[in-house]
Amino acid sequence: MAQEDLVDRLETIQDLYAAFLQAWEEDRHIACFRLANELLKAIGQVKLSVAKGRSDASFDLDLEPVLELEEAVIELLATPFFIRFDTQEDITPMLVYLAPELREDYEEVYRWHLDTQEPVAMLYQGEALKGKDEMEAPYYDLLEDYLARKRGGSSEASLRSLRKEMSAYARLLTRRQSWSKVDLDKVLGSERLEEVILGLAPELADNHATIQDLDQRLRQTIMKLAGNRTQEYLAQQDIQMARYQDLLLVYLKIKQSPNHYHQAQERLDKSKMAMEEQKDSLLSRLRDLNERDLDAFEITYCQHQQET
């Protein structure tokens, strides 16, 4: 690149920087993002050309203003007042400058975002933006924290710990990707159900395992103690477990695509509470049935008390 061309390129960079600052002042965050990418790319080309032209004695260009401008852009992008991203934006080019060590994990998260077609948003002045997807949110919270700490001069040990946490969450999202396309109606009642629960709703795993155990124990107790009412009690058990399966299916479907339902979190909370009540109900039924098995003990104990 000739020196005259470099001068022209520097003027272009100044124009881009002015447009970037104007977009920033007007809160046009997507425009900021695109202008910053174009600006940093142009600066990179100028730096490379200058480095190649150093051997030419006639080549004389002060690069200091360009480096200061580059630092100013990166400094601005690294503040808590970050860029707002829509569902189509990829911040990989920004991370090349801000935190290249995060690029690989971020690209996994962004691929997950594209595959599941869920919205992405960053924190803006500490408040979650409308449309920010709840599954991705923790990763982006960590990302913002990391950039703030790096800019603030945190120790490498502190940054390494945060990177490890971000990497673990990126892996979690990658694993969840496989559950986003599962046909839950077919999974219900199959051998894969426990696996799907662990993938989509691990918070239900303990309650589900307890309910399955109680169901098995109840059926065994009914067969042993119900006598001529065995079929009646088994039918009641089938009805109660069918209700539980309905609640579980609703919960998993909302967890699979929370943005596709109104009042998603409220419905999740209600479904979870109802499933916990199902567990309590099953336990109560099991205790009532087992009381029959203690009739002989009560009679023997009463006799013992009378004799003593």
Short summary of the structure?
This protein is mainly α and 308 residues long.
Task: Note down, in words, how this protein is organized.
- The chain is mainly α.
- It is built from 13 helices and no strands.
- Helix 2 (29-53) packs antiparallel against helix 3 and helix 6 (137-151) packs antiparallel against helix 7 (156-177).
- The protein starts with a helix and ends with a helix.
Number of domains: 2
Chain-averaged pLDDT: 77
Q: How do the helices and strands follow one another from N- to C-terminus?
A: HHHHHHHHHHHHH
**Rg result:** 31 Å
How many DSSP E strands?
A: 0
Percentage beta strand: under 5%
The shape, in one word, is elongated
Observed structural traits:
13 helices; 308 residues; elongated
Record the SSE blueprint:
Blueprint: H1 3-25, H2 29-53, H3 64-77, H4 92-98, H5 103-116, H6 137-151, H7 156-177, H8 184-187, H9 193-200, H10 205-225, H11 230-256, H12 264-293, H13 295-307
